[in-house]
Specification:
Number of strands: 12
Number of helices: 9
Radius of gyration: 48 Å
Number of domains: 3
Strand order of the largest sheet: 2-1-5-4-3
């Protein structure tokens, strides 16, 4: 059996709502149904009760008059209470006597209506038959049969239904106004209550959103003081974070140990190749192998730096760093580079300071300049300025740039774009990940922008107050 497209669309829209909104809608739907059923029952019971009350009053009056007729006393006019109308009819339907407000010539009911009223059915007649407005509820009882040789009579009593109808209209109006207002008030209360109930879940979500690669290893999700399902979920998620932290520590320890163990054989291999090159042994092979050893040494050093950068528990010494002087120093190291590297005009007059380990900051900027020099066409420009409570450092080249869809991926480890796949010209794919890790340890960050032409790398660092 296929689903109707409209029902499927409604379900899809409902599924896209938040849990808070779905709970509210479900609760309001159930409450509205309960109120509707309760209101209908209340209306039916109240109108039926009022109707029975009017019928009982009219029947009591008719029975009292019937007792008078049975006793041989035919009062004229017939005494009644309130606005009731009473007539005493003969078998042929002729009016014998009646109350003051009753018509003495015309019967209040037709023969068929009299028959139904005597049978106990509910009979409603227009009040205009007795010169009254609204409608009348009619009750009829037989009389005169107890009198010897008596004649058969029928006592007809009618009571106005205007009060009942007015009460019913008032009740309908109240229900139509009060129910929506009540639903609105309950919706506001339910929204607040559901929000309070889901507050621990929102706290868990915000806590999970704050935890990333730059967070402390000891940072955990808040555990509510209540012993409920949310508290159990928070405890379970924190236990999962503990396991992930332990796994990351083992991974970093493995990388650090492996890289450290590789440094000794690489150093020995370099020494042997340098000796062979000086002695002229092996022809051009020692020189070629030395280049590969250099690349492998750089890769091992990068792995060690990454392992230490990921280790939040590692000891770091931060100090005030003059960003202007640091950029000038970095630019001076590339005096013999493929393209000129210089600082922007006016940088020397700016006083910009940040707090970070100077060695890590130098390594991060050097990686950025290395990449810029590798891809620039004519020049690389270093600049820095104050932006609010941060220092913004830029490294700009006029190369081919990086497409927008690739700018996030280049910060993944061992990622190299197609134009940098060549082993001789491209790096290992660890330069930008190392830069990002080192900067985040110091409270900074890095992003890529279009320089038109070329690429601009923007580094944000906190100022040293």
């Amino acid at each position: 059996m296929t689903d109707h497209p409209r029902r499927r669309s409604v379900r899809n829209r409902f599924a896209r709502l938040s849990i808070r909104a779905r709970l509210l809608l479900i609760g309001l739907a159930g409450l509205a149904g309960a109120l509707l059923i309760g209101g209908l029952l209340l209306y039916a019971v109240l109108t039926a009760s009022l109707g029975r009350s009017i019928e009982g009053t009219a029947r009591a009056s008719a029975q009292q008059v019937a007792l008078l007729v049975d006793s041989g006393r035919m009062p004229d006019p017939v005494p009644v209470s309130g606005s009731q109308v009473v007539q005493v009819l003969e078998a042929q339907g002729r009016v014998v006597t009646g109350s003051v407000a009753a018509d003495r010539l015309t019967s209040l009911v037709t023969p068929d209506e009299l028959r139904r009223a005597l049978a106990g059915e509910q009979v409603i007649v227009p009040g205009s038959r007795s010169g009254l407005s609204g409608r009348l509820q009619v009750v009829a009882v037989p009389a005169g049969a107890a009198v010897p040789r008596g004649r058969e009579y029928s006592v007809v009593a009618a009571a106005p239904t205007g009060d009942v109808e007015q009460s019913a209209r008032t009740l309908r109006a109240l229900l139509l106004w009060i129910f929506p207002l009540l639903l609105a008030v309950l919706a506001v209360i339910a929204w607040r209550v559901i929000g309070a109930a889901l507050a621990p879940v929102e706290a868990l979500r915000q806590g999970a959103e704050r935890i990333d690669e730059s967070s402390s290893e000891g940072e955990r999700l808040p555990v509510p003081p209540t012993r409920d399902e949310v508290s159990a979920l928070a405890t379970t998620l924190n236990a999962m974070l503990d396991r992930i932290t332990a796994a990351r520590r083992k991974q970093r320890a493995f990388i650090a140990d492996a890289a450290h163990e590789l440094r000794s054989p690489l150093a020995s291999l370099r020494t042997q190749l340098e000796v062979a090159e000086r002695l002229g042994e092996g022809g051009d092979l020692p020189a070629e192998l030395l280049a590969e050893v250099d690349r492998l040494t750089v890769l091992v050093d990068d792995l060690l730096i990454l392992a230490r950068a990921d280790d939040a528990a590692a000891t770091r010494t931060s100090s005030a760093v003059d960003v202007t002087a640091l950029l000038s120093d970095v630019a001076g190291r590339y005096a013999s580079a493929r393209v000129p590297v210089h600082t922007a005009p006016g940088l020397a007059g700016r006083r910009l300071q940040t707090r970070a380990p100077r060695g890590e900051l130098t390594r991060a900027l050097t990686n950025l300049v290395d990449n810029a020099v590798r891809h620039a066409r004519t020049a690389v420009v270093l600049d820095a300025t104050a932006v609010g409570h941060q220092v913004e450092v830029t490294v700009t080249d006029d190369g081919h740039g990086i497409s927008v869809e690739d700018r996030d991926g280049v910060f993944d480890r061992f990622t190299r774009l197609d134009e940098a796949r060549d082993r001789d010209s491209g790096g290992s794919g660890l330069g930008l990940p190392i830069t990002q890790a080192l900067l985040r340890r110091s409270g900074g960050d890095v992003r890529l922008e279009d320089a038109a032409p070329g690429l601009r790398v923007v580094v944000r660092l906190p100022t040293d107050h």
